[in-house]
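User: Round two. Same drill as before: sequence, then structure, for each protein.

Assistant: Same drill it is. First protein:
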Amino acid sequence: MVKARWPDGVVRCPRCDSERVTYLARQRRWKCYSKHPRPQFSVKIGTIFEDSPLGLDRWLSAVWLIANAKNGISSYEIHRALDVTQKTAWFMLHRIRLAMQRGTFAKPLAGEVEVDETFIGGLQEGAKGRQKANKALVIIAAQAAGPGIGRIRMGMIPDASAESLHTFVLESIEPGSTVRSDGWQGYSGLEQKGFERHISVIGGRGEDASKLLPRVHRIASLLKRWLLGTHQGAVAPWQLPYYLDEFTFRFNRRKSKSRGKLFFRLMQQAVSTPPATYDSMVASTKAATTT
């Protein structure tokens, strides 16, 4: 962890940026000699592991398990494997998923990119077209790699308005790229924002959509199968953004042959991701689903 966070060694205090730092071998901590209330610090400080009562042995085991599980791992499996409560395991996994997000969105998609939305959740009576009722609306962007799929981006959006769709496209896709979408009016105006738009007109039959926008529909199918298989569909809408981050992290690294390298990459992201409390994570995601 020290190597992942401080490749050149600990030369500054993460709290006050002072260079007056020394290592206390017996305590396995560092001490800052500047004047502030908490002069000692560990490698956990300023990371997703900060203020956790669990030791790094369990945290590193959790990161290893989630990095090596091809189809993901549920909080109940972490609960049994690490002998922690299910609530603790759930919180650990969500912190790790927060770290997954940091690396996933570092580089925007480019080239030819398919974009479309899908609903996550059961069928709702009275909901038509792009009305979502109580379902979660997820937008998916899939980069073309020949006939296959390159990297992807996903996000949960409040509605299919132009404001929501354009915000996602601008955050996820590099200007100058070709955006391939259906004829929904919410995508209109992307041309004025630096994108080349290609419209695929989809009829009323489901098979037409899967043929004209095959990549995003393939991703949507895999996502729903993963949520039902690994997590038995027990994902509340306010929790969904964390699971989308995990799915995206896994899919974009699906061709990685080295589990050790994948583990180290996730550790690099974990030690560079600021800490988050349980209450803040719950509050932020619930607020996002109600706006």
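Second protein:
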Amino acid sequence: MLRSKPKPFMKCAHWRSLLPALVLLSVALLFVPAPTTGTQPQPNQREIADQLLGSDLRQRNEALKAVLSIGPAKVGPELRSALITLLERQNRIVLEAQRRQVTLDTLEDPEFISGLSRVVAELKDPKAIPALAGALGMFTAIRPLADFGEQAAPAVLEVVTSAHSHYSAVNDGLITLRFMVERMKSHRLSAGILDQIRRAAEQRLSGKQYFTTLWYAIDLAVVLNDAKLRGIVKSLASNRNEVMARGIEDAKLIDLTQKRAADRIAGVPANPRP
């Protein structure tokens, strides 16, 4: 059976007459909006919580990014609990690194722990206070804990006064307590908590201390405006032997310690600021 040869497209009068309309239709279809339901689908927070606590590191990292996209105000109870639990786990890894005297990056990604602690801090959830206190030493927990005020003071004091705390955690704790004291006009501290803070400052001004710990204890002691504590700081400023008695023997560090003590007594404010 013979078939007729198809006519060239542009030579067909019928299609030629339809071409302008087809072009207009094609252009119009390019600008037709995609169907929407009015709201974007929300991430499955239970699934994200499971991934955070799972063993797959890639999924865990992606889950933390998903939390950031959700925003702290929209994080539900189950996901909040998972974030806090994960930070508690990471705190134990930090302690293990300190116990073994190895760098943290041999056991875990320090950037992940730092990012996680910031996320947990942004929740502003009192249930996170113990985990944030356990994260002292990463510097990310100082302001969030200070923002809780007296509610967080016992957990911070426990870190500062413990003989088992790493000096970096004690340092962050001393800064946190100073922030709390300096914010007392807007965040009241009870007499009982203030007394505990004074005793913690005195403890870290006495005996052998890491030099930075002594520095942050000096800062805290002066803002407490306690006569006994100021007397200790004055003795550090004026007597090199008092500094050496705290275990600081390097001549330059002794000079820096004395200058810090003298500056605080003279009213020079400590950094960082609250």
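Residues 44-135 form one domain.

User: Perfect.
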